Amino acid sequence: MATTALAPSPAGTTSRPSQPPRRTSPLLRTIGRIPSFIVIAVLILITAYPLLWMFLNSLKSKSDFLNNPSWALPEVWMWENYARAWEVGNLATTITNSLLATVPSLVLIVTLGTAAGFALEVMVWKGRGGVMLYVLAGIMIPGQMILLPLFTMFFNVGLTGSLVPLVIIYTATGLPLTVFMMATFFRAIPREIFEAATIDGASMLRAFALIGFPMVRNGVFTVAIVQFFLIWNDLIMALVFAGRRDLNTIQVGLLNFSGEYGAIDYGPLFAAICITVGGILLIYLFLNQRIMKGLAAGAVKG
Questions:
Q1: If we measure between CA atoms, which residue out of 229, 244, 219 comes closest to residue 277?
Q2: What is 81-299's CATH topology?
Q3: Domain spans of the chain, in order of start
Q4: Which of 84, 87, 112, 291 is an S-S bond match for 268, by CB 3.0 to 4.6 Å?
Q5: Per-residue pLDDT tens over the stretch 282-302
Q6: What is the per-residue pLDDT across 99-113, written as a single tens digit (0 to 9) for each?
C-alpha cells in the first residue's frame, strides 16, 4: 500500500494539513448575543418609558391623574387636552417667540463662534493663547450671577419689553463654549491644507469661507444643536426679560397651567410638553447622524 510522505517545512519540521476553521452553530451565536439584546432592551425601556408615561398622562383628566397610578391607562381618553393646551398655554405665540429668540441667536453664535475658532486655532498671532483662556473663562460664569446687572443695563438702555435682550444674552453666553468646540474641530484639520491655500494666493477670509467652514460643517451642526437645546430650554432669562404674556417663550408659557394656590391642570400641561418635546425629538432624530459625525470629528486629530 502506497503511503504519502509529508513535505518538510523550511524550518525542518513536518508540516500538517491545514484544518478548516470551526464554525459556531447558529444556536450558540444566538445565545452569545442574549446579553447584548438584554442591554439594548433595557436602554430602549429607559428611553421610551418617560415618553410613553408623559403621553398617557396627557390624555387623563385631573381626577384620573390624582386618584389612579400614574402608570395606569386613562379611564377616559381626553384628546381634547391638546386643544386646551394649545389655547391655555398660548402655544402659537410662545413657540413663535421661542423661534424669534432662538434662530437669530443661533445664527450669531455659529457665525461668530466659527470665525473666532478659526482665528484662534488656524491663524498664528501673538497673544492668541491668552485670548483663548479669556474666552474660556466665560464658561465658568453662572447666568444667575449676571442676571441683575444685565437687567439693570437693559433697563437703562431701554431695551426691555422686547426679545432683543434675550438674543444678546443667548449669543454672549453661547459663544465661549462654541469657540472652544470649533477650535477643537479646526485642530483636526491638517495645517498643510491652509498653507497650500495661502501659497495659491487665497486670503484668510477666502480660506475660512471656502476651505475651513465646509470642512467643519458636521461640527457646525453639532454646535448648533447643542446651543439650540440650551436656548430652547432656558427659563430663567426668558422669565426675567420676557415675562409679559405676549413675549413669553415656550418654557415660560408652560407656567400658565399653574392656577390659583398652585393648582395644576396636569392633562393639558403634559399635552403641551408632548407638543414641544415631540418637535425637538423630530429635529434630533433628523440630524442625529450629523451630530455623531461632528462629535467623532472633534474627538480625534487628523
A1: 229
A2: MetI-like fold (1.10.3720)
A3: 35-78, 81-299
A4: 84
A5: 877 777 666 666 555 544 444
A6: 999 999 999 999 999
